Amino acid sequence: MSSPLNLIGIVFVVAGILFLAFELVHPGALLFIPGSILLVGGLLLMFVPDALLNSYFGTVLIVVAALGAGLVEIPYYRWVAPTHRPLSTTSAGLVGEEAIVIVPVVPNTLKGKIRVRSEIWSARSDRPIAAGTRVRVTHGEGVSVSVEPVEPPRAS
Q1: Angle at the Cα of 118 (from 115 to 124), degrees rounded to 5?
Q2: Residue 47 vs residues 5, 40, 41, 91: alpha-carbon distances, Å
Q3: pLDDT digit string, tens, across residues 50-66
Q4: What pTM value is reported for the model?
Q5: What is the dihedral of CA 73, 74, 78, 79, to 10 degrees?
Q6: Which of 29, 59, 80 finishes a domain?
Q7: Which of 40, 59, 89, 138 holds its CA 20 to 30 A away from the CA of 106?
């Protein structure tokens, strides 16, 4: 017959394994550290309950497990979640980007439309620009941008 400590140890081990598995499937849940602690604590309760409950050895092992998991978790998250551009775009953030005119730009109006990245923006310019022309965003204000044609490289 198993002791209550063995049953608690088994529950801790199973919970730790589930936490670690969930963390691998769904990164970002921050379950690697508690999963490691539960796994080590459960194994200690199952195999050497006196070391965990009646000495400092078990406490030291739990702390070492937590620190080790933290040292593994930080580089893992940097690898899993690489840096990316902000998810929202502002017109000022588009300055310098190249785009394609999809609706002709009429001077000093907001009738023109451009596609920059995967978004469509109202465009203005001080000269007419035909659809299909490559342009560069020079200024952003509100929900519109100012553009100028990109000069093709000249042949020598």
Answers
A1: 25
A2: 10, 11, 10, 62
A3: 877 788 888 888 888 88
A4: 0.46
A5: -40
A6: 80
A7: 89
